[in-house]
Amino acid sequence: KGEFPWLLVPVILLACPVFAAGYNLFRVGWTRILLGIIDGKKVGISDLRESLPWFLNFFLCCVLIGLATGVGACLFVVPGIFIAIRTCLAPFLIVEENMGPLEACMKSNELVSGYSWQIFLYLILYSIANMVVGNIPIVGPLLVMAYFDLMLAKIYRSRLELQRG
């Protein structure tokens, strides 16, 4: 009673990386599906499986962004928010442009330039929607995630087209 449950340490040390890998394995395919929907292409479950070539760079990018955002959040919160905003398009660049993690983060920073406040407002709306609709068990969070992920893919596509001119 009152002691730390040391037996959970190995479970946590194993479960966290396994969950992170599984989650990002899904997200890389989901990102490809979102881009296909935005482009009006036919998409399917097979897109989840066909996204394996980008998994390692996608995973490393998400870890890098997570660590940078976490460190930034420890430094008075604002730097963490800034990093999250400036790197939010990096996963799309990895899937579509086959970039490496650092290259994608730098290109995302370029794409977001001059558009940071709009993405900040997008993140605020996403948070509010999660608080409201997220209270509906299972379906709520999935609907919010699907809608806002699709909107972020649309933002990515419009910023990329603007830059290419």
Main sheet characteristics: none
The low-confidence runs, each spanning 5 or more residues with pLDDT under 50, are none
Mean pLDDT: 91
Q: Tell me the Rg in angstroms.
A: 17 Å
Helical content stands at over 70%
The beta-strand count equals 0
Euclidean distance between termini CA atoms: 64 Å
Task: Based on Cα principal axes, name the global outline.
Answer: globular
Strand residues, percent:
under 5%
Quickly count the helices: 8
* SSE topology string: HHHHHHHH
Structural class designation: mainly alpha
Q: How is the topology of this model organized?
A:
Blueprint: H1 8-38, H2 46-49, H3 55-74, H4 78-86, H5 90-97, H6 101-112, H7 116-133, H8 139-164
Helix pairs in contact: 1-3, 1-5, 1-8, 3-4, 3-5, 3-6, 4-7, 5-6, 7-8
Throw out a few tags for this protein:
mainly alpha; 165 residues; 8 helices
Describe the structure.
With 165 residues, the chain is an all-alpha fold. Helices cover 78% and strands 0% of the residues. It contains 8 helices and no strands. The protein has helices at residues 8-38, 46-49, 55-74, 78-86, 90-97, 101-112, 116-133, 139-164. Helix 1 (8-38) packs across helix 8. The mean pLDDT is 91.
